[in-house]
């Protein structure tokens, strides 16, 4: 099963979900804005990502800019996302052993290999 950290208002997130569903993948959708990840979950997710913590944040979001946080500092990234889930990059597909950011949405298909 793949968990998709999903924002239904985001076109990339909707596209990633559609790609997985078209392939018959069992997808558990987690709307992370309604059900935010806690610090432990974020740290675990970061360990499974094929990218650094900097890729996990949306640095153009007003909330991120207001924080003045350093995207290269994993602790600051985690604290920022816990406080402002909207700054987390989306979508993220996670199979429990690996996680990928769906930018572009087709990147989530890497978990099917």
What would you say this structure looks like, in words?
With 113 residues, the protein is an alpha+beta fold. The protein is built from four helices and four strands. It has a four-stranded mixed beta sheet with strand order 2-1-3-4, sandwiched between helices. The longest helix is centred in the N-terminal third of the chain and has 12 residues, at 11-22. It is globular. The two termini are 13 Å apart.
Topology of helices and strands:
Blueprint: E1 2-6, H1 11-22, E2 27-31, H2 39-48, H3 62-67, H4 74-83, E3 92-94, E4 99-101
Label this structure with key terms.
113 residues; four-stranded mixed β-sheet; 4 strands; alpha+beta; single chain; 4 helices
Q: What is the count of helical runs?
A: 4
Instruction: Please give the order of strands in the largest beta sheet.
Output: 2-1-3-4
Structural class of the secondary elements?
alpha+beta
Average per-residue pLDDT, rounded, comes to: 96
> Could you tell me the radius of gyration in angstroms?
13 Å
CA-based shape: globular
Q: Termini separation (Å)? A: 13 Å
| Total E-strand runs | 4
Poorly predicted parts: none
What is the helix fraction of residues, given as a range? 25-40%
Topology order in helix (H) and strand (E) letters: EHEHHHEE
């Amino acid at each position: 099963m793949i968990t998709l950290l999903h924002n239904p208002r985001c076109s990339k997130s909707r596209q990633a979900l559609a790609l997985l569903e078209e392939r018959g993948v069992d997808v558990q959708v987690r709307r992370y804005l309604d059900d935010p990840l806690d610090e432990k979950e974020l740290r675990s997710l970061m360990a499974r990502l094929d990218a650094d913590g900097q890729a996990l944040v949306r640095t153009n979001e007003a909330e991120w800019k207001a924080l003045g946080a350093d995207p290269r500092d994993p602790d600051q990234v985690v604290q920022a996302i816990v406080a402002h889930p909207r700054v987390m990059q989306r979508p993220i597909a996670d199979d429990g052993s690996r996680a990928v950011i769906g930018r572009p949405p087709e990147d989530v298909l890497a978990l099917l290999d």
